[in-house]
Amino acid sequence: AQSVTQPDIHITVSEGASLELRCNYSYGATPYLFWYVQSPGQGLQLLLKYFSGDTLVQGIKGFEAEFKRSQSSFNLRKPSVHWSDAAEYFCAVAFYDSWGKLQFGAGTQVVVTP
Amino acid sequence: EAGVTQFPSHSVIEKGQTVTLRCDPISGHDNLYWYRRVMGKEIKFLLHFVKESKQDESGMPNNRFLAERTGGTYSTLKVQPAELEDSGVYFCASSLTGATGELFFGEGSRLTVL
Question: Using one digit for the tens of pLDDT, what is the confidence trace for B26-39?
């Protein structure tokens, strides 16, 4: 079945530590790939996207993600988290003819401790 | 520039009542999307407007849901009659035609059906 999987529902990380959020997809073709973040009281905001080309994608707020076709993965990373990175993170996929029709993963809640 | 705004932010109604959610997209954005997140589930696509026309309504759960976008500006999503399983957060997003890759989301309208 077609799906987007975020294996980690909840992650706790210390401020200043590195963060990696996992995302795997299961589709016949390589979709467009996105990471969105929802901070408390705010709407979802696009962190970065991958359509084609360089498999290492830089985004806003110091985030990057790496597309690995062989693993059907698009993991999100940040070298050093800040308290303001506490939020819920969503991986999403779409296809070229309907890129706004996103299929989301379940989300990963990130808690940042002092 | 104002972002995507949604009203109300939270609505509590009894089963069988009617609720209307409103979304004001970013000015000039022809594409408007509705998504929904029910408790414990992924964010799911409901439908897509291009201006006042429904481009894709494949995600609408049943005929108790009616979406409109008169004049191609703001949109409403009416649930009539509401059922318990309709509880969740309803997100609206908008994008420019021709701009690929970023949806701008509102903060969501939380619906609680008792």
Answer: 999 999 999 999 98
